[in-house]
């Protein structure tokens, strides 16, 4: 008689290696997509800046504001029609900062819905709360 483990497999009716592989694949795609989009936005912004001015540097500071304030300021510039290289670079920075948050959100949903593992879902929810606090509140 086969001994059943108490891991993810017993909680969602599938074998544990398949669940683990699905989780790792999902996390890998999220991280890879976030980094590629961020790099493309940053590269496009710097190429546009260099093509239009001959300089690579930008003169603006993002210190003293959280991610919400940073994104809000950039969105307000888009609404005002101020689309320029700096906007692409700012969006690249925002995507890079939001990538870990999206990864943790996806992990929490995976543990809650697919794996039906309350313990891991709660641990991941705690990590999500700490990460969201550090990005949006501080």
What is the general shape?
elongated
As residue ranges, the low-confidence spans are 1-13
Number of helices: 5
Question: Which strand-content bin applies to the residues?
Answer: under 5%
Find the structural class using helix and strand composition: mainly alpha
Element pattern in H and E: HHHHH
How many discrete domains?
Answer: 1
User: What is the terminal-to-terminal distance?
Assistant: 55 Å
Cα-atom radius of gyration: 20 Å
Q: Biggest β-sheet: count, sense, barrel?
A: none
Description:
By secondary structure, the protein is mostly helical. The protein has one domain (15-137). It has five helices and no strands.
Features:
138 residues, 77% helix
What is the compact description of this entry?
It contains 5 helices and no strands. With 138 residues, it is mostly helical.
Write the SSE topology.
Elements: H1 8-12, H2 16-53, H3 67-79, H4 85-114, H5 118-137
